Fold:
Amino acid sequence: MGGLRKLTASFVAPGPCGVAIRDRLKHLTSQDERVLRAVGAHQGALASRDLKARCANGLEHGADTWAARKRDLTKESSSRIAGAITKATHDQWALARRCQAAHIRQLDAGIRTLRHRLSLPLGEKGTKRAAGGYRSKGEWFRKSRRLAALEARHAAAVGDWQAGRVRVVRGGKRLLNTRHHLTEARLTKDQWRQRWEAERWFLAADGESGKRFGNETIRVTADGEVSIKLPAPLAHLANTRHGRYTLTARIAFAHRGAEWADRIEANRAVAYRIHLNTERGRWYLTASWQRPAVQTIPLETARARGMIGVDTNADHFAAYRLDQHGNPVCDPHRFGYDLSGTTTHRDAQIRHALTRLINWAVRVGVAAIGIEDLDFTAEKTREKHGRRKRFRQLISGIPTAKLKARLVSMAAERGLAIVAVDPAYTSMWGAQHWQKPLTTPHRKMSRHDAAGIAIGRRALGHPVRRRTAPPPHDQSDRAGHRTTQAAPGNRRREGTRPPTTDRPPGGPPPSGKRKRGTSASNTVRDAPSTHRWVQDSLTHTG
Structure:
């Protein structure tokens, strides 16, 4: 396959390793809210101070410095709260470190692209694999200035990486910058301040196996009673024994409630987090716990009952069902969604589309869903796509990481496996080999529907290209000839046989008159060159 990159093998995606469920804290009294705000603000201040200390340590962090930070926090809270804060701080610092490394890689990619294009003559055309030169001297000059800016940013980022410096904003950098654009965000100063303070609160506790109901700091009983272990400076606010405050709200998890009840009755670890949604004025409690690693089914088992191939697009999933031999079954299905608006709206749209897709897969009886292993990390750079602003916005708007994680989690609950395939050439080959043959007056095939077939066939281990029908039986050519059985290196293996002529292959056209008069064609070999072999039936088993 000259010029084509090598495809990676398909694999079954591993199952989820954790569970999180949420319920609203209803009917809280004013005293309950005052206590929650006081605890959140106090522990949030401790978390901010601990994060500052952790960032100051940089690469010098170790077990001794961690223990020293925990001892300082224990004086103003408790040992368990201090452990939860230091663990959250370390996770936040590690996340910032990974984001810093990703930023350096992105800057490297942009610098390489700019240097390549600046080295080319003006107006030189590019290829599919590399961009060409710039169009004018003015554009060349502006890009040279941008190269200098990126090199300066890269040098500063590498210096921070080597020194172990990270920049973290508790509450979020985006919300912090919103303070300077309140009119565009349609917020007042008081509304922004409430949201900023709520995001910086710390009302969370890690679970402990063997402790009563799986958590000693935030305890939720089987009947839904919620109580909080208050930090030492706020112990005077307790309304029950042992420095605890019991809320008037009751929790009743509708989703996975039985699984949660089994865990707390067995005193297995459950982590809790309480947060306030300032837009709605509602308090929520989130419970989470880890699951043992789910053993994925073998790839052969996932392929046994066919597959549903799914092509991911900016506004819909294009899905097609295939049997175990790779034959398309029934009509294509599309599951639309809208990725505009807030993050909550986008998540709800993706979740609703995935729910419909999984329900359909369960109804038709397949064991797995094939999907592209998409990763647009290297595709979002401004230097790579240049003026293609709408395309950059398109690929940046698809939440590939969240989509894959959510699909794996939701499919595992319904007993479905997810087979990830290489996304290379699926749209191109699908449209080339499947779009036109499957189009009928009653069935409209799009390029995305055909890509779903290509993805499903790749997940099943079949080539994307389909077989064509052999010529019928006659005296000179038996049905053993099949047009797609040439060697893989022959790019014309799906074409028809050339017409028989008197000239040798590659030779000049014959001169003079034909040695033999024409006669009525009665064999396949003598058919006019305008005739093409078509596939009598798309189904096959070999």
The chain has a mean pLDDT of 83. Residues 71 and 386 are 53 Å apart (CA to CA). The longest helix spans residues 79-118.
